[in-house]
Amino acid sequence: MATTDTYIQGNYAPVRDEITAVDLPVTGTIPAALDGRLMRIGPNPVEDAAAGDHWFTGTGMAHGVRIRDGRADWYRNRYVVSDRVSEALGRPITPGPRFHDGEGTANTNIIEHAGMTLAIVEAGSPPVLLTDELETVERIDFGGTLDGSFSAHPKRDPLTGELHVATYHWTWDFIRYLVVDTAGSVRHSVDVPVGHSPMVHDVAITESSILLLDFPCHFDLDVAMTGAQLPYVWKDDQPSRVGVLPRHGSADDVTWCEVDPCYVFHPLNAFDLADGRIQLDVARHDSVFKTVRNGPAEGNPTLDRWILDPATGHTTETRLDDRSHEFPRHDERLEGRESRIGYTVGFTGAEGPAYKHDLVSGDVEVHSFGEGRVSQEMVFVPRSVDSAEDDGWCMSYVHDATTDKADVVILDAQDFTGEPIATIHLPQRVPFGFHGNWAPAE
Ligand SMILES: [Fe+2]
What we know:
mainly beta; Neuraminidase; six-stranded antiparallel beta sheet; five-stranded antiparallel beta sheet; binds fe (ii) ion
């Protein structure tokens, strides 16, 4: 059970050094076909941390490992330079636009789009452009086409390469849906009224629809007035529902499908069924910020399947696996399409296994990284552009409690329970954080 100081202790605590290490030691053999960067980001408070600090609001720090020719060329970690970082470390203010009077923290995801490496976050701060080597360049507004909140979870349509994004801000009583084109401009925007100010962490897409997540964790002005770092709290009297927005539809076209009370940060994937319904797999929390206010820690998140019926607003809910699962990922060449395999990691407890789910048969394979070794989110990298689903590698940053350092572990996805094919040893730990991605070299 999380306590008020969980998120400042152990491997949640920030690291202080920004390191450049080259030619990293490797156990095993890195596949020669891997050529790119394994990027990761999470909160790393630049100030002294205090009990009760919210996990979600710490200054961002990006980590990356450059892999090519069977070698791990370098590891780097760098602050994403927000105003807090500038003030604390005496660095220049990061240029670029500001939204909603924010101080520019971007700590939740790091993606590659339109040739840019971007640190991104929900609910206010603009994307922050980084160099390939993770140095902060500027805040961006996609060439003047973005004028408010972005999100940490754009979904890339594999057919078009465009990003589909759900955004929100505490002053908005709507969820804003955006499409960012392949050149990096917002080309489409729809505001969907919801009548309250929910925390909207992610989105799902199918070939026909955008799935908007509206769960009963809302902005609370009274809590904000107490000085809470993240004034979003559980609202027992508000609905849990998924809005089905047709791809080219307007707000009037949204149909809402109710589910039992819960919170979802992360869908695994979604796709259209032949009969007009939609299958959506999610990591489901019973509640968040109801009793524990500084992180999601109100019971094990489970892996659940929802069959949404936009014609009736009814949802059929099935528990797929009742162990603790978070940070679900899949082969993103199948984003919004029928996919069979999902990857998750355990979210609570000292052991941090990873899971591979056959979402058709229900089979689950478990990879244990060993005693005291905890995997952060897994990233699937296909063996080649046209290899089959699941034919590739699962890569993650793994914390080792014995050495108090991190490894990047590479598994053969099709030998998921087998020994890692390569383990890259990093010179320091990588704090428990949020998300990352593989950025292939050009
Ligand atoms: Fe997330």
